[in-house]
Design goal:
The chain is of the alpha/beta class. 43% of the residues lie in helices and 16% in strands. It has 21 helices and 18 strands. A hairpin with a 2-residue loop joins strand 5 and strand 6. Helix 10 packs across helix 11, helix 12 crosses helix 20 and helix 19 crosses helix 20.
């Protein structure tokens, strides 16, 4: 355990040093720096002035111990007077002789730590097995700018003149112009090679490399694939026939991208973009959520559809997976504007929906109101009452307990995980992020289990009540959110609580964490904070809440992680039971409802743990549930794809 904590401490130090992707160098480490003539025509006639290094004794020019610094005009250097005209002629003759006899020379310098602060526009990287100093804008090393900018170790004035010369070079200015032009186009950020949690086999790595080359800009999708490939690597090693199955599975069956025009209350036209990804129908018709949020793009839609495919494959009721939505933001819109947008969205989407094809469900930004408008337009266009749109309005579709199913299932999953650790949820401090539907139902069920929830959050910060929330406080938070107000309103009634702006709750002391906000909300720094806070169990409530670096830190600290694929079993089970034509006419009691959810969660947990053990992953491994869930889901899909042939 001490070794793991040492590694985490080192990661924390490294995180503070990773400015501009700089490769951290050891003080005194030698770096070969090349000095060369400039290819920049603006400096073709510049004179070269020899300046001795302050760290070396002054020696004759024949020993070549000086630095060659280009100057556009003769000037005083480091406070020294200019040479007289005869001296200048003799001096320039010597320099011309040096330039003629030796145009390029290598100077070995020692990397100094303060350079990282002085030259924030530079970073160190290896080129042709040699450490070079590169410009962060041009991505070129020093000799491309006539000479190495670090070649001058003189006074600060001389250092700044070197920086000014670099910034004035034509190559640098052109790079700045191109960089500015690319920002104006608002292009999707390119991602670098995925950061793997551990080394992968050649086959697994090649699969990831292939996906990265096809879709280099789809960061969220590549990240979700990376986690799954990492988990099912033992399956690929044991049975090579699954390699081709996986390659086919990672390509969605269908992706729809369409425009959604709509008119606001002032009569102005707007256009948003709609998405629907039907990832796999190998196990049955697709089912998955619709999300209305400005962050939605094709990468997020594919990632959500892939996660939903594996979630559905884990359940007893086999279904395919899909996801979609729009970059439309329903916040701040009137009822009529939301209705007009939903109707326009469904005008295109209805062609790809149906009880045997695709069944949409709620997600972030899509609640009972939006689902009602969507279903009404679907019924109008299709001409019949079908589709099983998921929602709490039992008079037209769905279960009356549908909104509670996912949140309650998350808490039931936490109880099962803790029971395997010989612990119980009662009395444990719990940190929750988010304050939407799922987060509120998690909070409600934690109170009934006598746990102590202490945080919730919104887009502006998080609310901390050190005494823990109770049912009175829970009702107040629900009222605040129903009125679409900030959680700061809570402080008017309970002034002892705190609201921390522009922060997340993961630094607060807790035993169990429930991230319910969004994907990648926990990065490397927040994972370190979770470990430091004493948290031992993390229940994923949202899809992929942790970055790859955060997962690595949690693994080394032996924090038990329950993946969203397994924790969402309650919501998935209730959603799939709704497909029964008689189910929508049934009214369950609260006891029957909770029993159904608990059974679904326990069965999913047992199947996942068994799959992990079958491939040599022991229960004591904190990632056993993550790997087991991915393995079990993949094997179910792979079997169906094998039976159906190459389609």
């Amino acid at each position: 355990m001490s070794t793991s904590m040492d590694e985490i401490n080192l990661l924390g130090q490294a995180q503070r040093q990773q400015q501009h992707h700089m490769a951290v160098r050891g003080i005194g480490e030698e770096i070969d720096l090349e000095i060369d003539q400039c290819e920049d025509p603006s400096f073709s006639d510049a004179a070269l002035v020899a300046v001795p290094s302050p760290q070396d004794p002054v020696v004759p020019a024949d020993d070549h111990k000086g630095f060659l610094i280009p100057c556009s005009q003769p000037a005083a250097v480091d406070g020294q007077p200019q040479p007289t005209p005869p001296q200048r002629e003799e001096h320039e003759g010597t320099l011309r002789l040096l330039a003629h006899t030796k145009k390029k020379k290598k100077v070995v310098k020692k990397w100094r730590e303060e350079w990282a602060d002085t030259y924030k526009w530079a970073y160190v990287a290896v080129h042709d097995n040699t450490s070079r100093i590169f410009c962060t804008v041009c991505k070129e090393f020093g000799r491309k700018h006539r000479r190495n900018p670090y070649g001058n170790e003189g006074s600060r004035n001389m250092q700044m003149s070197a920086l000014e010369e670099h910034n004035n070079s034509l190559l640098h200015k052109e790079a700045l112009r191109l960089q500015s032009a690319s920002k104006e186009k608002v292009q999707s950020p390119e991602i670098e090679r995925p950061v793997y949690v551990k080394a992968l086999s050649k086959t697994a790595a090649s699969i990831l490399e292939s996906v990265s080359k096809k879709d280099p800009h789809e960061a969220e999708f590549i990240q979700s694939i990376q986690e799954v490939v990492h988990s099912i690597e033992p399956v690929l090693v044991k049975n090579s026939q699954y390699v081709q199955i996986l390659e086919r599975l990672l390509e969605p069956e269908r992706c729809f991208v369409f425009r959604v025009p709509w008119i606001d209350d002032r009569g102005e036209a707007h256009v948003n973009r709609g998405f629907r990804v039907q990832f796999s129908q190998a196990l049955g018709p697709c089912r998955g959520g619709l999300r209305f949020h400005p962050s939605i793009n094709l990468s997020v839609a594919k990632f959500l559809a892939f996660e939903q495919t594996l979630k559905n494959a884990l359940s007893l009721y086999k279904l395919g997976g899909a996801a979609g939505g729009s970059d439309f933001d329903p916040k701040g819109k009137s009822e009529s504007e939301v209705m007009r947008f939903c109707q326009s969205f469904m005008d295109e989407l209805y062609r790809y929906l149906g009880p045997d094809q695709d069944l949409p469900a709620e997600d972030a930004g899509v609640g009972p109101r939006e689902m009602g408008y969507l279903f009404g337009q679907y019924r109008r266009l299709s001409g019949h009452f079908q589709g099983n749109f998921t929602g709490p309005k039992i008079f037209w579709s769905g279960s009356s307990f549908r909104t509670e199913a996912t949140g309650y299932g998350l808490v039931f999953c936490a109880r099962v995980v803790l029971a395997d650790m010989n612990k119980e949820l009662k009395g444990l401090r719990c940190a929750i992020s988010g304050s939407g539907k799922i987060a509120m139902h998690v909070l409600e069920k934690l109170l009934s289990c006598e746990a102590i929830p202490v945080t919730v959050s919104d887009s502006k910060g998080y609310l901390l009540d050190g005494d823990g929330f109770d049912y009175v406080k829970y009702s107040l938070i629900r009222n605040i959110k129903a009125q679409q107000k900030s959680l700061k309103e809570y402080l008017k009634t309970f002034p002892r609580a705190k609201y921390i702006d522009d922060a997340k709750p993961w630094g607060e002391q807790c035993d169990v964490a429930f991230p319910c906000a969004s994907q990648n909300e926990i990065d490397q720094g927040e994972a370190l904070a979770i470990v430091t806070s004493g948290c031992r169990v993390l229940i994923e409530c949202s899809n992929m809440p942790c970055t790859a670096q955060a997962v690595d830190i949690l693994r080394k600290a032996k924090v038990h992680v329950a993946p969203a694929k397994a924790t969402a079993a309650g919501g998935v089970a209730v959603g799939e039971l709704e497909l029964n034509s008689e189910f929508s006419l049934m009214q369950w009691s609260v006891e029957d409802f909770e029993n159904k959810i608990q059974d679904a969660v326990k069965q999913t947990y047992d199947r996942s743990m068994k799959a992990a053990q079958d491939y040599g992953i022991m229960k004591e491994n904190p990632e056993s549930l993550v790997h087991g869930a991915n393995i079990s889901a993949f094997l179910n899909i792979a079997q169906a794809m094998t039976d159906q042939g190459c389609v």
